[in-house]
Amino acid sequence: PDDYGIPRWQGTPEENAAMYRTAVRICGGRETHFLPLDEKTIKLVSAAKGGKPIVFEDVDLPYTDATKCVIPNKCKYAAITMVGQEPVTTKNHAPDFGGTFGAHQAYSMAAKIEFMLRAFMRGIGYLDVFGATEINVPWGIVSGLSELSRMKSGMNPKVGSLFRKCVIGLTDMEFPVSKPIDAGMHRFCYDCGKCAEMCPAQAIVKRDVLREPTWEITSPDNPTGNPTNLKPELFNRPGKRVWPFNHFACHNLWVETASDGCGRCQGLCVFNNFHLSSIHPLVKTTVSVTPLLNSFFYNADRLFGYGELPESSREDFWLKPDKYLPITGFK
């Protein structure tokens, strides 16, 4: 606006949120929640980027020089936007190479969303600073976009685990504050463990080994993966209550199979299938209020065979895209 001598957009926090969410949809994102950047949430901002410390200063614009990355102090809010992921290849082909298509597409989409939102916000007179945090799962959980899963990613009530990541924009636009949710998905993981059973790398801790999350990180004596004596502090941050995840074993599978990724755990999550049956909204409601039937619902998911595409249909997948793959961006 300054370039044209006109005032920047002015609206209430609620109007700002509605407009931003519409822009997110136009740019290719799914949904957005908001948090204030305060003494607690600022801990989720990375300490450094590219070897340079990230600092907040009283400046008008963000900048990077030879010694630091600077974010303006006036950026008081964070907009946390979910980046969706094409579900069919992830669900039906992981850990084969074809299972990584959705992930790579989503990472490309994330970069596009950040670029377009930054341009949109600049056009109406505001900042939207991306890239200041390398950890996105906590932002989604604290803002209510998701709940923590056994596989240590987020789960969303609408799409389950079938989203790739959250992109976080730090902005000087004011928004209403979003709250964490309790949709029963995190509790469901106590009695499920399907992702751990199906993990070809055995990187996810199984239900009979650890039912509930813990403050402990992966044991250095964990026999999964190679080498035998792991250094868990290199790939598990302490200070949070989660199910330990053996990142080395996970990545080692990628290398050994030349699969460029896996994602089988993500594709086979029970919460991905709520759109497949008319009874599933009832299941979702039940899970959100009581954990008593969690084991039953997990076994039902296994019984009905949700998840991977049968081997007999693999060739059909490549010959009939209209049957399996919607055109991106269109209903």
From TrEMBL:
Coarse class of the protein's main subcellular location: other
Superkingdom of the organism of origin: Bacteria
Keyword Signal: yes
Magnesium found in the keyword field: no
GO cellular component: cell envelope
4Fe-4S ferredoxin-type domain ranges (all copies): 179-209
Ranges annotated as spanning the membrane: none
Sample GO molecular function, one term: iron-sulfur cluster binding
Any one Pfam family match given in the protein's UniProt record, by short name: Fer4_7
Keyword terms: Iron, Iron-sulfur, Membrane, Metal-binding, Signal
UniProt-annotated location(s): Cell envelope
InterPro entries hit by this protein: 4Fe4S_Fe-S-bd, 4Fe4S_Fe_S_CS, RDH
This protein's name: Putative reductive dehalogenase
Protein species of origin: Dehalococcoides sp. MB
